Amino acid sequence: MATKEKTTWFCSSCGNESPKWMGRCPACGEWNTFVEAPSEARRKGSSGSSARIGSSTTGPRRLREIDYSKEERISLGLEEVNRILGGGLVPGSLVLIGGEPGIGKSTLSLQIPLHSPGLETLYVTGEESAKQVKMRSERLGGDDGACHIFTETLVENIIAEAGKMKPALVIVDSVQTMYTDSLESAPGSVSQIKEVAAALLRFAKGSGIPVILIGHITKDGYIAGPKVLEHIVDVVLQFEGDNRGAYRVLRSIKNRFGSTSELSVFEMTGSGLREVSNPSEMLIPLHEEGLSGTAVCAMLDGTRPLLFEVQALVSSAVYGTAQRSATGFDTRRLNMLLAVLEKRAGFKLGAKDVFLNMAGGIKVSDPACDLAVMAAVLSSNFDLAIPQDVCFAGEVGLSGEVRPVAQTDRRIIEAARLGFKKIYVSSFSSEGEKAKGIQVVRVPDVPALVRALFK
Ligand code: TYD
Ligand code: MG
Predict the structure, then answer these.
(1) Residue with the nearest Cα to atom 13 of ligand 1?
(2) CB neighbour list of residue 175: distance below 8 Å, 6 or more residues apart
(3) Is residue 230 located within the same domain as residue 297?
(4) Which ligand number lies closest to the CA of residue 107?
(5) Three-state secondary-structure class, residue 404
(6) How many angstroms separate the alpha carbon of residue 250 from the centre of ligand 1?
(7) Residue 424 within any structural domain of the chain
(8) 102 lines ligand 1 (CB under 6 A)
(9) 50: in domain
(10) What is the pLDDT of residues 199-257, one digit of tens each?
(11) Domain end marker among 277, 312, 344
(12) How far is the CA of 243 from the centre of ligand 1 (A)?
């Protein structure tokens, strides 16, 4: 009688392991994310202690005896990538770049060696042929002979080759196509992805060679997304944006060597990704003065102030029930703001469709956007335009009060620098006293905002 093969279940969203299938992951709360994978016990041969990460040969040492010099980072040719990494690539680090297919991960990862002169790179591709990579590189330009292409999917071979070649950087595109000999499951399965990443982490830590790993995020739960890797790697960069639009945002979600929630903007052009060093300039209005339903928000993303346009469309509901939809903004938060408008300022938006869109396909989570969202919704509702040299930074509370937001001064300085003449902030903010070249308008609550804008 055949013995039943032992399998375990993994949540493809957070990597949580369970002996049985579950509809909802108890760890991250996502539904329908459990996928089956062979149990670790099915490793070929006896793996023993081979899974130990970065075997320590030195033993414990005093903290003060450990050398560390600040200049150890590798500076890449792409300034925005350096900045998001916290000042360059740290030797021996494992960096994951995640994103949906077609967003530009392969383009970015090939552009890094091509635009960093003299950086000896081993570019491993499991998705494209060497010819395809060559064709792409012709569009990107800048090849100085230091970039080596290796088409391979077996991680043991990659590590052996990298060990021989000793490059300054290894890039692996993509983790989903790689597999290790020590497991029998198919490439792309959760256990393979975890094992491949762990092997590359051991290699990076042991050799001091940084490894950049590319990972696809899929919307369905079948293939393990890079989320299961977030615990393993040192840095997680997420590439996002609208595939059809030209602008892409690279965001740092986790960084053991720098600050998180940093953000860089790139533009996809015919010759690769172009760094947009001043993203505010591209995210603020491109249209003529006098269009209703738009308002500019002075947001802070990570450490950098960022100004961008919020667009709203309020119209009578075509069908019985009103629709509320938001792109780049939390729909629940939009509903809350609309409820505040209704309850605290007396606007009956219940029978209206409300659509909200953040310019450039960016996703915002900064509460300071509330005020701009309200202003855009009101502007569309009244069909009255807000002047183009006006911007907003404030959070709106449930009782309709406008609350102060962090680092108001920095937002004001950036707005003034970009030529804005007026910024609306909370009356309760203690900042903004010394603003030069810009008028700071303080509003205590939503009715006061309405009066100030549309009287
Ligand atoms: P790609 O890097 O292959 O995406 P990913 O690896 O994330 O799946 O590229 C995505 C898109 O970028 C592709 O549709 C073609 C486009 N593209 C340009 O517009 N300009 C360029 O110079 C290159 C190389 C690609
Ligand atoms: Mg690709």
Answers:
(1) 102
(2) 96, 193, 196, 197, 213, 214, 215, 226, 229
(3) no
(4) 1
(5) coil
(6) 15
(7) yes
(8) yes
(9) no
(10) 999 999 999 999 999 998 765 534 455 567 888 899 999 887 766 677 888 888 889 98
(11) 277
(12) 10
Q: Whose CA is nearest to atom 12 of ligand 1?
A: 104
The Cα 346–Cα 339 span in angstroms is 10
Last residue of some domain: 250, 277, 304? 277
Residue where the block lists tokens 């290790």: 180
Number of domains in the chain: 3
Q: Is 136 in the pocket of ligand 1 (CB under 6 A)?
A: yes
The SS3 assignment for 345 reads helix
Same domain assignment for residues 188 and 294: no
Does residue 349 sit in the same domain as residue 332? yes
**Binning pLDDT at 50, 70 and 90, where does residue 261 land?**
low
Q: Locate 38 and state its tokens.
A: 């062979």
Boundaries of domain holding 313: 282-453
In a domain, 190, yes or no: yes
**Domain assignment of residue 1, yes or no:** no
> Rounded CA gap, 6 and 41, in Å?
8
* 126-176 tens-digit pLDDT: 999 999 999 999 999 888 889 999 999 999 999 999 999 999 999 999 898
> Residues 262, 294: one domain?
no
Q: Find out whether the beta carbon of 404 lies less than 6 Å from any atom of ligand 1.
A: no
CA of 328 to the centre of ligand 2 (A): 24
